[in-house]
Specification:
Layout: H1 5-21, E1 28-33, H2 39-47, E2 51-57, H3 60-73, E3 82-83, E4 101-107, H4 115-128, E5 129-139, H5 150-162, H6 171-179, E6 183-191, E7 195-202
Parallel strand pairs: 1-2, 1-4, 2-3, 4-5
Antiparallel strand pairs: 5-7, 6-7
Length: 206
């Protein structure tokens, strides 16, 4: 059971954003892409019992941690974690079917992965979400070409030093990428530590 300090800090604020945005009165199907340690999915699953959660990860060590959290909490509404590479088409997403999900959640992946993962995330979510389904992403972002405050500027610089394909993405870029996949930015929520939750709704392109 790996423990990420950031996940421990942000799991409750993200849960609050989820509570405001999803129907808690009926059974829902959710996929978390890039579940990390498993702290988020087990926290959300305990609070939102009406949602069946599918955790996923690219990193093999994280997959083992997610399974350790599942075993510890014995949650019936969390499925076994699947290996998922967000840069690949949805056909490689562990058998998840088109228009089968009410919710896709992605936390702190976009800035520490190549742009192909972001593009794959929106493309795949646009397929697997039901009409009116929700994609929630969380992390630090640039707004209209500007990164604020200085701590996020420093963070962006350190990420790009580690990997030239990493870095904070601009919300306008994410929004246009989403729109080309039938997802529309419905809500932006300011979060602690200069992060944001962006909520995209799947709508018909007609």
């Amino acid at each position: 059971m790996l423990n990420a300090a950031a996940a421990e800090r942000n799991k409750e604020p993200i849960l609050a954003a989820l509570r405001e945005s999803v129907n808690t009165g009926r059974s829902l199907q959710a996929l978390e892409i890039s579940s990390g340690t498993g702290q988020h999915v087990t926290h959300f699953a305990q609070a939102l019992r009406n949602i069946i959660w599918q955790p996923s990860e690219y990193d093999r060590q994280s997959l083992a941690s997610i399974e350790a959290y599942r075993a510890h909490y014995q949650l019936h509404n969390v499925r076994p974690a699947i290996h998922l590479d967000a840069s690949l088409p949805y056909q490689y997403w562990g058998g998840i079917q088109p228009e089968s999900l009410d919710l896709v959640v992605n936390i702190n992946m976009i800035h520490i992965s190549p742009m192909a993962c972001t593009e794959g995330l929106f493309k795949g979510a646009g397929v697997v979400l039901k009409p009116q389904g929700l994609l929630l992403i969380y992390g630090p972002y640039a707004v209209n070409g500007q990164i604020t405050p200085q701590s996020n500027i420093d963070f962006d610089y350190s990420l790009r030093q580690r990997n030239s394909e990493w870095g904070l993405r601009d919300i306008s870029l994410l929004s246009s990428t989403a729109q080309s996949n039938g997802l529309f930015l419905e809500k932006m929520v300011d979060m602690p530590a200069n992060n944001k939750c962006l909520l995209f709704r799947k709508e018909s392109l007609v």
